[in-house]
SsrA-binding protein (secondary endosymbiont of Ctenarytaina eucalypti), 161 residues
Amino acid sequence: MNKKKKDKISISAIIVHNKRARNEYFITEEFQAGLSLQGWEVKALRAGKASIGDSYVLLKDGEAYLFGATFQPVTVGSSYIVCAPMRARKLLLNKREIESLTRFVHREGYTIIALSLYWKNAWIKLKIGVAKGKKQHDKRKYIKKRIWELDKARILKRASR
């Protein structure tokens, strides 16, 4: 009788969302990872000064690192702390999850990209996805399908009145 709740992320908990990811890649599998952050980076995330548009994940020596994510430092921070907005950040994943990601990445054409940063209780989590790049004709097909879904919803709404 004890049903497991699905991990739904509330819209207010999302800090940054990678909007281009679904347009440019086929996402085959998603994982949730913790981030090893410094204090000024958490402050930047609270202020909403982060970007994960061009970020990706690399696996080195059995560990995962986030590259390309930009966290702009807040100006009221200390002057003695050196802030590196583009530094590599370690992802906190289980060994089993890292092995699974390694198997995916060794396939031809697959990569790991960041999909969104969000709050889960007091922790900052990163949703990453195993992705394969779309060709130009796939992108056009996706856009046509999305436009048709919107038009269909509009037509059905008008018809139900």
About this structure: The CA atoms of residues 10 and 77 lie 29 Å apart. The chain has one domain: 14-134. The mean pLDDT is 85.
